[in-house]
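Collaborator request, handled under Task 6.
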Amino acid sequence: MRHSYHLEKHFLERAGWLRAAVLGANDGIISVTSLVVGMAASGASTQTLLVTCVAGLISGAASMAAGEYISVKSQQDIEKNDLLMESRALERHPEEELQELTHIYIERGLEPELAAEVAKQLTAYNALEAHARDEIGIIEHTAAQPLQAAGSSALAFTVGSLFPLVAILLLPEQALEQSIMLVGVITLGLMGALASYVGGVSAWRGAIRVMIWGVIAMLFSYWVGSLFQVAPV
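Structure tokens returned to the collaborator:
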């Protein structure tokens, strides 16, 4: 007989890199666009805006990579320490750990006899994996991946920062401030919709949510920049 297995691809499997990528892309668009808009409102020249945008791109991407790596690495260290602690407990008190696992399954709805048998079989198969998953909550799909998070975040930030950079290079200088803000809002909407689609939620909701926060950040930066009037160089 031929057996077919229905293997579902759940959205949670994308959580690690998707979270970092969404954060990086949105931050790249919002922070660099807001930075450029604020400088433009102060009266800075187009050349100054271009240099500011490039500097924001480089420093922001490096900061995102470093921040994500340190943050997720800390999470990974905690997970490793918990696994080490659990491994020692399994070596020293195997019967108590078996009872603990049995109690977990009883609380989840299994009959005591069935819970004891499930705990016994899973312990025989891979005791540490069973305790990591059902006691601590560490599973393969959501385990911390520092390098993946850092790379995704830095790359996404760079991509997001390219939109205001291209806008400065291509759009007319006469209406540069408004054009950069418009490009920023549109790209934020597209990024928000794409991230929501990949995450399995409403694209419109994700787009509107990130656009609102982007507009708030840009208007605030514009207001602050307008307080400092400088002569174009």
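The cover message to the collaborator said: "The chain is about 80% helix and 0% strand. Helices lie at 15-41, 46-92, 94-107, 112-136, 146-170, 176-199, 203-226. Please let us know whether this matches your experimental observations."
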